[in-house]
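Schema walk-through. Below, the input block comes first and the output block second. Nothing else is stored per chain. Lengths vary across the set, and this one has 437 residues.
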Amino acid sequence: MRTVLATGTPSVPPIDRAEKAEPYRAEILELLARCKGNLVRVHEELLAQGATLSYPALTGFCRRHAIGQAPVRPAGRYEFGPGQEMQHDTSPHRASIGGVEQRVETASLVCCYSRMLFFQCSPAFNRFRCKVFLTDALGYLAGACGVCMIDNTHVVVASGTGARMVPAPEMAAFAERFGFVFRAHEKGDANRSARVERPFHFIEHNFFAGRVFADLADLNAQAVRFCDTTNAAVKRHLHASPRELFATERAHLRPLPLFVPEVYVLHQRIVDVEGYVRVDAHRYSVPYALIGRPLEVRETKDRIDVYAGPRLVATHARALTRTPTRVAHPEHRPPRGEGPGAQRPSPDEQELHRADPPLPAYAVALQRRSNGRGTLALRRLLALYREYPRPAFVHAVTLALEYGLFDLPRLERLTLRLIAKEYFVLAPEDDPEDPHD
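--- output ---
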């Protein structure tokens, strides 16, 4: 200070002082490569070689001359107008569900202008679940921005990366229905989707921390309430809440279509020998009479519908866990004692049981008095029932059951006798005239 005041000029002379680490530049560069960039080890080796410099002097020298570290680059900033862009991404998290900590895939959507946040969780994330999530998210926002920025995920992308990304046809058709387009950031440029990347840290440390969920449906219900609370909170860097900014952005969103169809995916399955169809490692029961038949399975957000042609044969609540589960309805199982080895009534027996009384009772009694299952006797009885006039045959069966007559040839003769009396009675004729009169 005295030197500066003695010069009598306002300009301060530059300090011309040699750096203590300058004589060791070559050794520092050599040791930095050998010690894999660890300056603590470089300093220890320099002291072992007789150098006299402190560790701060070494780090300051390396920092000023960009030795061992890349120069700091200024951060960029992206500005978005209302309704211009929304960003979507996924991230794995750990959640306590049903008393068991398990991995879930968290899908998130953020409006870039207002920072409106919506997220949901699922056991895994594929193209079907992506469409389910985006349908729920756009319903939560009551509209869509013009562009949906994604990373180069195979869930949406069919080929290419960045500006050359081509979305899968079904995802492009899905986006067209809601009035937006998919775009991907360049490979390695994660900052381009920072609006959706940053909230994942917030979700992990503010939503999952300390929360216990009964099941995945409970988790997603709590996630919606958490989004409502978060979107209503004032953000210091925004000087407003996302909900307040979204009031301005809402008018710029693409409106939802008049009809939003339910998202589903079709599977072709063959019923296994236990009477189940498999979807995503989970097994769902169908009526046991359909074992071995090909069926169409429709998987929706929360249901599994099974069709045999156009006919709905089973519906189940969709299993939402990673652990393979078996979902069964009691009515799909055979009654007790009527398993796969049980003998079922033949078509002839079923027709006789539906016949006019007392034929069903006569058929049961005849079957008990016959050898084996009485198939031949029942088949002959059904043939008589079809062949002879119904009233006469029913009358004959009534008499046979009353007197315990189970000889089918005698039953047939009895039927013929009744028919002869009722159907073949000749009317009396007048005496013929005498030809000699």
